[in-house]
Write a structure and sequence with these properties.
Blueprint: H1 3-14, H2 16-24, E1 31-32, H3 33-40, H4 44-56, E2 60-65, E3 68-73, H5 76-86, H6 93-96, H7 101-108, E4 110-112, E5 115-117, H8 119-130, E6 134-137, E7 141-144, H9 146-155, E8 170-174, E9 181-184, H10 185-197, E10 201-203, E11 210-212, H11 214-224, H12 228-231
Antiparallel strand pairs: 1-3, 2-3, 4-5, 6-7, 7-8, 8-9, 10-11
Pfam families: HTH_20 (PF12840)
GO molecular function: cadmium ion sensor activity; DNA binding; DNA-binding transcription factor activity; lead ion binding
GO biological process, one term: response to cadmium ion
């Protein structure tokens, strides 16, 4: 990648209004210009200018429905860049121990584009590693083992064919709050889809945070050995 491209993308992300818009969309959602303007606390005209720059820079895509336009991240790679940037520099003890409930909720569980992130996701990943269902591979990837594939089938999760353009099943995504890797890529997305379909987790309507339901705690304990008290914030 050329230096000019790096500086251009960095400049787009660094502007505070644009960074808020990008982070707001980091859960893979689609939002109108008005909703993004409200999230960033700017006027519609200001939001329109910033959105145009993000589109030109390849960080967003847009879909028109009637008179309305809806924006989303250009792909999982943009969310990965945002998480990677957030992981640069230390997570201070003050932030880790903050009594702020919103911050605690994000650290516990959140959407990272199409997969789960936070303490609960680290616990899921570690359990799968310990049981030999995935193993660390080269180039920050996980490989699904034969026993892991059989276990997923037992759970009713069909891996099937990789999505178009995908060459890897499971990627190691550095969790910016926990400083450990969690499962991303198609495997991470299908796990998240399953957790939502089973009613184990539910997304927040206003933030990237994810809540685990009582049914979910039973499922995570039974199938992943995750005990609520070991991961849930106080």
């Amino acid at each position: 990648m050329g230096q000019h491209n790096i500086s251009s993308v960095a400049h787009l992300i660094a502007e505070p209004v644009r960074s808020v818009m990008l982070i707001t969309l980091a859960d893979g959602s689609t939002m109108s210009a008005g909703a993004l303007a409200a999230a960033a606390g700017v006027t519609a005209q200001t939001a329109s200018s910033h959105l145009a720059k993000l589109l030109d820079g390849g960080l967003l895509s847009v879909e028109s429905k009637g008179r309305h336009r809806y924006y989303r991240l250009a792909g999982a790679h943009v969310s990965h860049v945002l998480e990677s940037l957030a992981s640069v520099g230390p997570v201070t003890p003050a932030w880790r121990n903050t009594p702020n409930r919103s911050a605690q909720a994000l650290r516990f569980a959140r959407c990272c584009y199409d997969h789960l992130a936070g303490k609960i996701s680290i616990a899921v990943t570690q359990n799968m590693l310990t049981r030999g269902f995935i193993v660390e591979a080269s180039e920050r990837r996980y490989a699904l083992t034969t026993s892991g594939h059989a276990w997923l089938q037992q759970l009713g999760i069909d891996i099937g064919e990789l999505p178009a353009g995908q060459t890897e099943l499971a990627r190691q995504c550095l969790d910016w709050t926990e400083r450990q890797f969690h499962v991303a890529g198609p495997l991470g997305a299908r796990l998240m889809d399953a957790f939502l379909a089973w009613g184990w987790v539910r997304k927040s309507s206003t933030t990237r945070s994810v809540a685990v339901t009582p049914l979910g705690w039973d499922g995570f304990r039974t199938h992943f050995g995750i005990v609520r008290e070991t991961v849930e914030p106080d």
